[in-house]
Amino acid sequence: MTERRVIVKVPASTANLGPGFDTLGMALSLYAWIELAASEDETVINLYGSGLEGVPRDKSNLIYKVAQLVFKEAGVAVPELHISMYSDIPLTRGLGSSASAIVGALVAANALIGSPLTEDRLFQLATKLEGHPDNVGASLFGGIVVSAWDGTRAEKVRLEPHPELEVLVAIPAFQLATEKARHALPKEIAMGDAVFNVGCSSLLVAAFASGQLELIGHAMRDRLHQPYRAAFIPGMAEILEKATEHGALGTALSGAGPTLLALVEASSPRKDELEQFLLATLRREGIEAKTLWLKPCAGGPEVTTLVRDEVVPAFMERIKGEVKA
Ligand SMILES: Nc1ncnc2c1ncn2[C@@H]1O[C@H](COP(=O)(O)OP(=O)(O)O)[C@@H](O)[C@H]1O
Ligand SMILES: N[C@@H](CCOP(=O)(O)O)C(=O)O
């Protein structure tokens, strides 16, 4: 059983999409790779690339801890592991790095022991670990995922992303921990704001489901979290207000930020104008940012299982044709 080695490619995600706080998520064409094998002696964790700087390489590592949770759930013991990881998903920027790590580790550990846990079980575990279902649902199921969690159970519906949808992200050079951005939110909100968000979030889901992309601009507006987080990201308010004038279908703070996200029609002739608007607005506020053009990722994690002694190129050799950096 433990003579296998698995490698999982897992997508990044953007949560909320504006009004769907803790509810809506979309998987993105930006990835992390996790390789897992049982070790006969000690645990070894290799993290490649500059994207994982500062992430622990001992048993306090999230991947190790999540893998052990899967083994415990399944009633098997695999105490020592060889873990390799490379990620193009920047940490703590609102692109779901922690959700990708959780989902990647759950799927890899489950595959390593012959997949005793169902996908639904993995979703429930992932939601509990992350504290909200939006990012983990998108990374686990791919596409656009609408989910509701009552603290005990998460239910979801996955929508196929419209083929014309493209995603522009502007990733500021600074980090903003999700925990900090959640602490900035009020404990109570006005009924009028709640009603506004129910309307926008419902309309946004209906627009995605029916392919009415022209409704995205009206629907992608929020009064629950973005106004309270704007102070962390100078320039954000202007971008959210004016990006549609520069060719965006709609814009939002990606997850808890600081990344800003614009949905765009692939055939739009104004992509360059929009990108320059985002960069110039942030730069005016003294914020350097990197832009990436992404697509919604329609699929969830891709799993490759190998017999352990099979002769295969080293981890980084195998994924190098696919990584962004
Ligand atoms: N591959 C990983 N291994 C270990 N910890 C990770 C990994 N990826 C992310 N994390 C943890 O998740 C944190 C980022 O999560 P969070 O603040 O929710 O931001 P986001 O998920 O938007 O990137 C990192 O600071 C790190 O502690
Ligand atoms: N719904 C959460 C989403 C956090 O996403 P992340 O990618 O920033 O971790 C929130 O808005 O707090």
UniProtKB/TrEMBL annotation:
List the Pfam families: GHMP_kinases_C, GHMP_kinases_N
The record's listing under Gene3D superfamilies reads: 3.30.230.10, GHMP kinase, C-terminal domain (3.30.70.890)
Please list the reactions this protein catalyses: L-homoserine + ATP = O-phospho-L-homoserine + ADP + H(+)
The parts of the chain that form a coiled coil are none
Describe which pathway this protein belongs to, using the record's wording. Answer: Amino-acid biosynthesis; L-threonine biosynthesis; L-threonine from L-aspartate: step 4/5
**Amino acids binding ATP:** 90-100
Q: Where in the cell is it found?
A: Cytoplasm
Q: Which HAMAP family match?
A: Homoser_kinase
Outline what the protein does. Catalyzes the ATP-dependent phosphorylation of L-homoserine to L-homoserine phosphate.
Q: What is this protein called?
A: Homoserine kinase
According to its UniProt entry, this protein's organism is Paenibacillus mendelii
Q: Which gene encodes it?
A: thrB
